[in-house]
Design goal:
Number of helices: 8
Shape: globular
Order of helices and strands: HHHHHHHH
Helix content: 55-70%
Largest sheet: none
Structural class: mainly alpha
Strand content: under 5%
Length: 243
């Protein structure tokens, strides 16, 4: 997406990479449906969630070290190459969001207290549809596929997108940037599905309540909302100019 204006047509490897990524998500969901989770013997003595909880308690000291190391790396990089420094900043931002999301999902008790969510009727069905403990097909994943797919097709169909960045308030951010940030939230949403259905990195499967999922949804309202709005405006503008 960042190289959109530099290429005439995306190579076939781009489609293949996107297909492999989506295929892995579908495969993981299918494998979960046909397999059963097995508890590890003596697992009560081995749960890295204890380590995660200790990190949360010492997070202020850890945050200072991470911010200090990141700032030093950015300053040294900027001294030699400004463009590389901005790329490194985006990478640090992505890693930071993913790490924060990972800790947010994995921390706490293995079995949480039941929530007080008593949805009924259509609201209950809709909540179950976007319950990331049940499936990995999150709102952010679907929107990510929509945006990336439209970028690929716009080059193939010769319907260019116009994504200038100027002083206009409409361009306070850009679609590639908002999608990049949203992709980190997409990874965080995947952690919800993973840990509720199996172990990961020595952290045992948990039984989380719906409140944590709702907090992820709240972040999606902001991130996905901005991305969807920008995408709609750009697509409409592209069709108006094209036709």
């Amino acid at each position: 997406m960042k190289n959109y204006d530099r290429v005439s047509v995306y190579p076939n490897t781009t489609y293949i990479a996107l297909g492999i990524g989506l295929g892995m998500v579908v495969l993981a969901y299918v494998l979960k449906k046909v397999s059963t989770y097995k508890e590890i013997q003596h697992a009560e003595k081995r749960d890295n969630r204890v380590f995660i909880n200790k990190l949360v308690q010492q997070r202020k000291l850890l945050e200072k070290w991470l911010i200090g190391i990141s700032s030093l790396a950015l300053m040294i990089t900027a001294f030699y190459n400004w463009s590389l420094a901005f790329q490194l900043l985006e990478l640090f931002l992505f890693i930071g969001i993913v790490l924060i999301g990972f800790v947010f999902v994995m921390k706490g008790d293995r079995v949480e207290e039941p929530d007080d969510l008593n949805f009924k009727g259509k609201v209950k069905k809709f909540h179950e549809m976007i319950d990331y403990r049940r499936h990995p097909f999150t709102i952010s994943l679907n929107l990510y596929l929509l945006v990336v797919g439209s970028f690929l097709l716009s080059k193939q169909l010769d319907i260019p997108f116009y994504m200038e960045v100027s002083g206009d308030p409409r361009y306070a951010t850009s679609l590639p940037v908002s999608t990049f940030v949203m992709s980190a939230l997409m990874v965080t949403s995947a952690f919800i599905y993973i840990i509720n259905n199996g172990d990961i990195f020595g952290i045992r499967k948990s039984e989380q309540n719906g409140l944590r999922v709702l907090q992820i949804h709240f972040a999606e309202i902001i991130s996905c909302g901005v991305t969807l709005l920008l995408w709609i405006v750009i697509v409409i503008e592209a069709f108006i100019v094209r036709f």
